């Protein structure tokens, strides 16, 4: 007890310091100028209010007129400052939550000219939102719920914050109680009748609490594995399990409308169930299963079901007859931008199941689609060499296309590989292909119609990045550090050197006699490879974020930091690199390329972005 009494003041101090944490993305954008964006991406959230439906497409927001559900009309698309994770409309104001931008409020009084009304920066990765009266309740990425006064939308003000102890998957309001789905942490009910002093009124412990829906004012339903649990909430301070109904299969989302229960999940279809007065369920109908198209969100209103289906888009389903649900239409969308290659003023963007998007980027402020190469599977990486486009997909295939005619790309050849590709490099008629779990494969691609696999080196781990100089191949080999292979005989590569004083090497780029390593949570390392058989560290720099990709340009090194954007380092003195630029993008940077002095970024669900470096000096965190 004595030890505990000594620890209590310290633990209390840590708790209140944690609660007082400011918005963690304190680093200001500096040293880089955004020239333009192309924000098309997947649909991951949908919200219906009266005769309007709102849904995101990456970092765009679309508004539908659904007065006539059989013939919905797209009224407006506009670019948002980030990817909307949750939203709610109150009057003319649309309240939205975005990963890096927190609470952003748009005025939609003039639907053709949406205007940002106000914002409050918070880190809200996959955040949830409830608006009640003049207060917004927002979950952030640090297991907290913020209470925000939005009585003046131009200046939202934080009133309080509440430590939850978990990151909620969903928040739902019933009268003055907010119910939070806590996953493995169970279900929490918080009374917000006095928004300034919220209080927990109930904790319900369960193996897992997933998607929530209100069956009525007295019954709350939540998913746990393939089971739907019904919780009697008539007395919020003493919620009781009413019944559990199993056998729902791989369901992730549920909704209720007009006495019918609707369910969707990993197979993309919609299942309907009759719901009687005793909350018994009876299967009614289903739409065809589509294994490749999971549902990210489901909402039902006025006999129409809305499914947010990622790269497939937004699907509307007529459920007037629940026994025979019928698809009305799908508003198409794009996948996440995972890789990018640039030739002249043309961008080739790997967008997973949406294939390769070919874009005209001659004017970064008005990027225009040209054509699309359909995907065999999830396209994650591309490279361009003259009129030849090299494409890697998740189905362990490597494809080569002739893109001399951008409107009609033509496949020339392909290569089957044993595993998915993490990265690849094409140079002097050779392709060096880093595999997810099988090391690196070497192929001759001089004749694209007859690609020949000539050698491989099994590292027994994932090779995340790759570069090649002279007869040496440098591998970013994760926990195993950097491996140097002698490829003087491509059919029989051999280890020549190894550097292991790293944490988790995700990428490597070579310039002069230095290797620059992206070391995930450990920043960037500069390795002297004057003697490739004996690499030694020359310098390093810690960077906030997850260093995933790295690129050398003039005397700069550019590092992709996943959800934290981009960092630019001056490496004129490799022993002492300096941070000189930073930009936090709306999405999560997956790939970065340089062309004609411009930086092109594949920003996951943020689409693509184009930057210019404007360095004036050093920076500090």
Please, could you describe this protein's structure?
The protein has 621 residues and is an all-beta fold. Among the domains are: 339-540, Methylamine Dehydrogenase, Chain H, CATH 2.130.10; 543-621, Thrombin, subunit H. The strands form 14 sheets. The protein has a 4-stranded antiparallel sheet with strand order 1-56-55-54, with no helix packed on it. A 4-stranded antiparallel sheet has the order 2-3-4-5, with no helix packed on it. The protein has a 4-stranded antiparallel sheet with strand order 6-7-8-9, with no helix packed on it. β18 and β19 form a beta hairpin. Residues 1-26 have low confidence and may be disordered.
Mean pLDDT score: 91
Bin the helical content: under 10%
Number of helical segments with 4 or more residues: 1
What are the segments in which pLDDT stays under 50 over at least 5 consecutive residues?
1-26
Summary keywords:
Thrombin, subunit H; four-stranded antiparallel sheet; disordered N terminus; 621 residues; Methylamine Dehydrogenase, Chain H; 3% helix; mainly beta
Can you lay out the helices and strands and say which pair or pack?
Blueprint lengths: L1 H18 L12 E7 L7 E4 L2 E5 L3 E6 L7 E7 L4 E7 L2 E6 L3 E6 L7 E6 L8 E4 L2 E5 L4 E6 L7 E7 L6 E5 L2 E5 L5 E5 L7 E6 L7 E5 L2 E6 L2 E6 L7 E6 L5 E7 L2 E6 L4 E6 L5 E6 L10 E5 L2 E5 L5 E5 L7 E6 L7 E5 L2 E5 L5 E5 L7 E6 L5 E7 L2 E6 L3 E6 L7 E7 L4 E7 L2 E6 L4 E5 L7 E6 L7 E5 L2 E5 L5 E5 L7 E6 L7 E5 L2 E5 L5 E5 L7 E6 L7 E5 L2 E5 L5 E5 L7 E6 L7 E5 L2 E5 L5 E6 L8
Antiparallel strand pairs: 1-56, 2-3, 3-4, 4-5, 6-7, 7-8, 8-9, 10-11, 11-12, 12-13, 14-15, 15-16, 16-17, 18-19, 19-20, 20-21, 22-23, 23-24, 24-25, 26-27, 27-28, 28-29, 30-31, 31-32, 32-33, 34-35, 35-36, 36-37, 38-39, 39-40, 40-41, 42-43, 43-44, 44-45, 46-47, 47-48, 48-49, 50-51, 51-52, 52-53, ...
């Amino acid at each position: 007890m004595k030890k505990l009494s000594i620890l209590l003041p310290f633990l209390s101090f840590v708790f209140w310091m944690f609660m007082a944490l400011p918005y963690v993305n304190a680093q200001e954008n500096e040293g880089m100028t955004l020239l333009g964006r192309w924000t098309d991406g997947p649909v991951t959230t949908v919200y219906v209010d009266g005769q309007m439906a709102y849904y995101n497409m990456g970092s765009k927001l679309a508004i539908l007129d659904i007065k006539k559900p059989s013939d919905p009309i797209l009224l407006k698309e506009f670019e948002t400052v980030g990817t909307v994770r949750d939203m709610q409309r109150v009057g003319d104001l649309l309240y939205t939550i975005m990963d890096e931008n927190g609470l952003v409020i748009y005025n939609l009084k003039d639907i053709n000219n949406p205007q940002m009304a106000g914002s409050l920066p918070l880190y809200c990765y996959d955040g949830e939102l409830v608006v009640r009266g003049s207060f917004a309740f927002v979950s952030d990425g640090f297991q907290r719920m913020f209470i925000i006064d939005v009585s003046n939308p131009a200046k939202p003000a934080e009133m309080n914050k509440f430590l939850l102890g978990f990151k909620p998957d969903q928040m739902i309001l019933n009268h003055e109680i907010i119910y939070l789905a806590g996953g493995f942490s169970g279900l929490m009910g918080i009374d917000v009748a006095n928004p300034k002093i919220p209080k927990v009124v109930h904790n319900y412990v369960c193996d897992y609490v997933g998607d929530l829906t209100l069956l009525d004012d007295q019954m709350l339903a939540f998913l746990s594995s393939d089971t739907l649990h019904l919780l009697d909430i008539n007395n919020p301070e003493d919620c009781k399990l009413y019944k559990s109904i199993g056998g729902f299969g791989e369901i992730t989302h549920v909704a209720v409308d007009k006495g019918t229960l609707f369910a969707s999940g990993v197979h993309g279809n919609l299942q309907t169930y009759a719901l009687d007065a005793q909350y018994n369920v009876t299967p009614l109908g289903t739409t065809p299963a589509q294994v490749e198209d999971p549902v990210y969100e489901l909402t039902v209103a006025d006999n129409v079901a809305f499914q947010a289906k990622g790269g497939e888009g937004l699907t509307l389903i007529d459920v007037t007859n629940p026994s025979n649900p019928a698809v009305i239409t799908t508003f198409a969308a794009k996948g996440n931008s995972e890789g990018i290659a640039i030739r002249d003023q043309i961008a080739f963007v790997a967008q997973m199941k949406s294939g390769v998007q070919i874009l005209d980027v001659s004017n970064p402020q008005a990027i225009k689609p040209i054509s699309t190469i359909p995907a065999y599977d999830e396209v994650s990486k591309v490279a361009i060499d003259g009129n030849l486009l090299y494409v890697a997909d998740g189905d362990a295939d490597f494809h080569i296309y002739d893109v001399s005619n951008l409107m009609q790309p033509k496949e020339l050849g392909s290569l089957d590989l044993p595993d998915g590709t993490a990265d690849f490099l094409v140079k002097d008629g050779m392709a060096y292909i880093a595999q997810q779990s099988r090391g690196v494969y070497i192929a001759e691609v001089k004749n694209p119609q007859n690609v020949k696999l000539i050698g491989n080196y099994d590292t027994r781990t994932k090779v995340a990045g790759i570069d090649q100089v002279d007869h040496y191949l440098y591998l970013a080999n994760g926990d195993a550090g950097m491996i140097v292979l002698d490829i003087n005989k491509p059919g029989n590569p051999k280890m020549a050197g190894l550097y292991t004083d790293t944490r988790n090497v995700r990428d490597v780029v070579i310039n002069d006699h230095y290797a620059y390593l992206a070391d995930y949570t450990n920043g960037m390392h500069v390795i002297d490879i004057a003697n490739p058989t004996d690499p030694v560290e020359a310098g390093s720099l810690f960077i906030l974020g997850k260093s995933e990709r790295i690129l050398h340009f003039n005397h700069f090194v550019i590092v992709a930091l996943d959800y934290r954007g981009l960092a630019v380092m001056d490496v004129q003195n490799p022993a002492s690199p300096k941070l000189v630029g930073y930009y936090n993008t709306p999405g999560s940077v997956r790939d970065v390329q340089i062309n004609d002095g411009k930086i092109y970024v594949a920003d996951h669900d943020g689409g693509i972005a184009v930057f210019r470096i404007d360095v004036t000096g050093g920076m500090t965190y």
